[in-house]
Amino acid sequence: MIYRAVFHVDLDEIKPLNIALANAGNLLRAIPEKHYDLVILFNGPAVNLLQTEQCAAYREEIWQLQQARVAFKVCRNALNRFNVDPESLIEGCEIVPAGIVALIELQQDGYAYIKP
After folding, report:
1. Which of 45, 56, 101, 110 is the most interior residue, by most CB within 10 Å?
2. pLDDT tens digit string along 16-27?
3. Contact, 54 vs 16, CB < 8 A?
4. Using CA atoms, how far apart are residues 33 and 41, in angstroms rounded to an integer?
């Protein structure tokens, strides 16, 4: 079995970010030595959370998740709408054309949808 999940963060608030990071970390600890494919997807105003200065306090936790192969995907439409320069994002983010399309595709591919 492969554990597939997408954690959807769409609010520019620290609480949902904290919950998403904790959920992903807890899942990884619960399934050691198992196969998994995890994504944390940011769209809407939540794209602001991944700017280098905004997430400085969470950078180490994010880096550890990235090292564990958790993908951080960011909606290009939201970056444009909220005037966020992709260069201002922390390292390791993958920009997808449309977050909503990515969510649909991931769910169609069998990913569990988790909304912190």
Report:
1. 45
2. 999 999 999 999
3. no
4. 24
